[in-house]
TrEMBL record, chain B:
SUPFAM superfamilies named among the record's database cross-references: P-loop containing nucleoside triphosphate hydrolases
MF term (GO), any: transmembrane transporter activity
GO annotation, cellular component aspect: plasma membrane
Top-level taxon of the source organism: Bacteria
Protein's name according to its UniProt entry: ABC transporter ATP-binding protein
Species of the source: Acrocarpospora macrocephala
UniProtKB/TrEMBL annotation, chain C:
Domain (ABC transporter): residue spans on this chain: 5-220
Pfam families: ABC_tran (PF00005)
Any one GO MF annotation of this record: transmembrane transporter activity
Key words of the record: ATP-binding, Nucleotide-binding
A GO cellular component annotation in the UniProt record: plasma membrane
Protein name in UniProt: ABC transporter ATP-binding protein
InterPro entries: AAA+_ATPase, ABC_transporter-like_ATP-bd, ABC_transporter-like_CS, ABC_transpr_LolD-like, P-loop_NTPase
Amino acid sequence: MVFLMWLRGLLLRRTGRIAAASAGLALAVALPAALGMFQSAAQQSMTARAIQRVPVDWQVEQQPGAQLKGPLPGVSRQVDFASVAGLQSQANGQTLTTGGARALGIPADYAATFPGQLRLLAGTPTGPLLAQQTAANLHAVPGTVVTVHRPPLPDAQVTITGVVELPTADSLFQKVGAPAGAQPSAPPDNVLLLPAADWHRLFDALPADQVRTQFHLRIDHRLPADPAAAYTRVAGAARNLEVGLAGAGLVGDNLGAALDAARQDARYAELLFLFLGTPGIVLAVLVTALVARSGQVRRAAEQALLRARGATRTTFVRLALAETLLIAVIGAPVGLALAAVTGLTVYSSARLTGPALAATALTLLVSCAVVLLPALRPVAAARRRETPAWSRYGLDLWLIAGSLLVFWITSKTGYQLVLVPEGVPQLSVDYWAFAAPALLWAGASLLILRLARLLLGPGRPLVARLVRPLAAGLSPAVAATLARQRGALGRTATMAALAVAFAVSTSVFDATYQQQAQVDAQLTNGGDVTIGQTTATEKQLAAVPGIAAAEPLRHGFAYVGADLQDLYGVRPSTIVGATRLQDGYFSGGTAQEIIGRLASSPDALLVSQETVTDFQLRLGDQVRLRTTDGKTVAFHYAGVVTEFPTAPRDSFLVANASYLAAQAAPGDTTYLISTDGTAPHVVADRLLARFGPSAKVSDVESVRRVIGSSLTSVDLDGLTAIELAYALGLAVAATGLLLVLGFTERRRTYALTQVLGASARQLASFIWAEVALVGVLAIAAGAGAGWALARMLVLVLSGVFDPPPSSAAVPWAYLGQVIALGAAALLGAGLLAIRAARRPPLTVLRDL
Amino acid sequence: MEAIAVTADELYRFYRAGDEETRALRGVTLEVAAGEIVAVTGPSGSGKSTLLTLLAGLDEPDGGTVWITGRRMSHRPPAEQAALRAGKVGMLVQNGNLIEHLTVAQNVDLAQRLAGQVSRKRRNGLLFELGLSGRAGAWPSSLSGGEAARAGLAVALANRPALLLADEPTGELDAHSETPVLALIRDQAQTGTAVVIASHSPAVRRFADRVVELADGRVR
Amino acid sequence: MSPLVSCQDVARTYGRGASAVVAVHGVTCALRQGDRVALMGPSGSGKTTLLHLLAGLDRPTAGTIAWPGLDERPRGQVGVIFQGPSLLPPLDVAENVALPLLIAGCAEGEARRRALAALAAVGVEGLAAQLPEELSGGQAQRVAVARVLAGSPRLIIADEPTGQLDSARAHQVVDLLTEVAGRLDAALLVATHDPVVAGRLPTHWEMRDGALREDVPWSS
């Protein structure tokens, strides 16, 4: 009852202070909760995307001579494969023949059962279907009669009813049971798909070594949200099935492979949580601690009164606990609600699980502790004149040195923070790397505190000179006042600087991440919009509204020795500008220089570093490539290319398009389109409408959503928004709130100054000097520390960037907002303090 | 009614500020019987407040002993001192005898609870006698000087103390307000409470049964 | 000789309505160069309020107050010594003494020189680099006197300057104030309720319930 009465009084009469402490605690709790929701939503969407990307979860291959017995889990369909010698068609009186081909027998409902496995480009899916490339080779359209060479059996004929694309050809034609780490086998060039009945009629009589049977499965998709857990479950189930089949079948685990990739991204999402979230959380707790510490004088007086009434230490502890509980009971739900609102608006989910839940609970506990401590022991701020121990021993410098050391060690491993050993369920995460930024944060905080103390100690004459414009003749007194409060002022300035550093580092990291995601998408897609498999000409394309330019890029394949590589033909005069080639894509020169070599010699060839090493090439060496139709074309090695728009990550070749055309090397032309500012997906729709469904059109926006790192796909924007909003809140709290609380404790000084005859202007100079000091330190030190941290984060987390950034991006607009809001908070604090200081001095002195 | 409520035996207390030592008390001996009112007078700095603090067990003497109703107050664990103080001693300090975020009635309640003797009837009676019935729900900051002094006295008497210690209880009051407060203290003394008042006021000197004058830490 | 300060029927009321407190009313008085006045009266009688009005730190709610012997703005030209700590905690002793000079527009070097001279004059030049919290009560009051001296005011007002001191030190401070006032040829008004202190000043005023009686006869 005493406690209820006490708390009611605090709520009614100490509303401001309780509200400030609760707000600090709410902020401290909300940040990990919101970040946890981000992480949880990110994981969920990574798992969901992995599942969505895979049309056929498992391909169970029946082993030669064995017969699969017993029911298979989930939904299964039988698919038969036959290897045939070739396909043949007659077109315009010309006979066209392919090399070896695969014929698949699929049940009628196969496409419906596994959506995404087949994409119908022309005709109807009811009869024999040709893969797009095969149809192109045979000049076949629906209705074309295709002859199947199937030695030792006689030729058979089928009438094609449709043309399909096989988006997952790689996994469809995988070698099931290939040892881990084996080179993936290339999918066949020619594919014929037959209704199951037709396939059995045609191929049942083939020798057993030319046919095999698979069962395609879709398993239960109720999987854990965490990709790592989902991977463990799926991979375990696959092995379990293999054991159950007792050698009769092997499982090709497509879903497991997709989840395996996703779990790496999930670990990176967790690391982002750690790297970007922790400083903000610590900062919020520190602000709460400083708020809770203020008002100690009044607390001490209250405890004296209670003691006079016979209160014991137990009573104080209970009252302090009750007050803490009150603040927690107000702050924690507000914080969680804030996080939930953030979660629901940004991710439409407010789930909080596992480590994030623990982090939130831990933050709540620590916040309660920092609120409880000053309530327990209201020591009227003891003034310590000696240098703190950390400063004497140079702890700040040791921390920074330690940070750089760890950073250097991490850099030697190439910042591989997440290691994914092939086929092992456990990921290893290099949490050590976290120590570098953590130590830098700690070291920078203390260093800023040291600088502030130095400035206000030995640097006092400098401060006096700096405040002269504000304080005129009073500047020595103002400087002395600032100097004697260097403990409190140093803490406030350091908190403000850390808030700025947090905002700077987070926003620079986020902006860099966005920049690289855009570069990555550009690199994958080639241009804003890319159109291939079309008969449209450059001129026709250029006439489509919204298109600024269309850059032709010829694509085919060629053998380098036994290695089949992508071969790109470019127009050197325009390619650099049209596709924004970056210097980082080449080695041994700038993009302009290397492409220039193509322009100056028609038979120049750019190859990958791997090829240079494998074949011991030196500049000017002749390279002979064998094209897919058997011709040999001679080139000269002219440079190394590492990345190229639309090119795969491994080895590929770049040459002059005009030279390839002259040598009649097979290939078709893709156009990389730059828009005139019209949204890429709008242009993509126009192109599809104009050049028909067979054209392959993709735009950079969709690509960015789909490609590689699912971190991008879970929308880092949400994380960015949370972080940046909190950074703003912290900056305002640290600058304004702490200053106001500080001013409150100096009311006596201001009142006495007035009694001694100070004018309003002179009095204000004390306050503005303090405001200016905190502001300047916060911006200068905060920007410096923030920049250093951002650089370190971008390097340490380079694993999430693809490709690694050549320079960090600075979001000036956002930083401008932070500084403007921080300045507004400072200004507000100053004006409040001046208004309070102008109260009649006696009233103030009487109250104190 | 000749029971001794409080005994101070040869009390010494020294303070040190900078390199200057203040001898606040230099061998003060005092005995107050139940129902007796003693005024402790003397110039500021003569040791009045220090004496009261030692009698309340809020500070330890550097020499000497304090006894409250026959039980030792000085030199024992803080928890026992607190219990003795809660049960036997009422304290009225010079200014700010009230917790600012509790109402007048709640301040009295709090003192009663700490003493473990909750009585709504006594609380209302106290407030009535002190002319504060209408101000029971008021916040301390809204009270006038006289009201604040009377409310402070109500808090000090909340636990029916055997010993009431008052440091300048009428310091903030004009002559009109001084009288009813002193009358209430007199009433309280008649129920057997020993009263020690530190004050400059001539009215208090006249009012007390006995005057003890301190000068430079000694009884003059 | 025109007075340094004169009050005509001055009143000061705090608060409004039912809870309004009349601290000072109907006060008419004047202080001239060379006056040495002790202002007596119990606590709460309005002494402090009157001092603040005379120093120009507060405005009367009725009546007029004027400083014909001073420049327009009295604040800064009246040396004020407060009850309790009146030094600025963040400034050291020399800086505290120099502050009013800096406020008045004195150059830094000159202000420091005069501050040190004033400290020497009251015999505490050795404390120049100390912080207020490191001083004893007596030292702090001497420094406050030095601060007044350094400002060379024509009117010195002290509110219970000996409140925290034992009697020997109280004498010293009052004598020091008198000496300083003499050196500056200023008027001195000291509020006190210590009869010993009052006895060292020739003129006595008394406040009672907000009203002022001048030239009270005095017998120590």
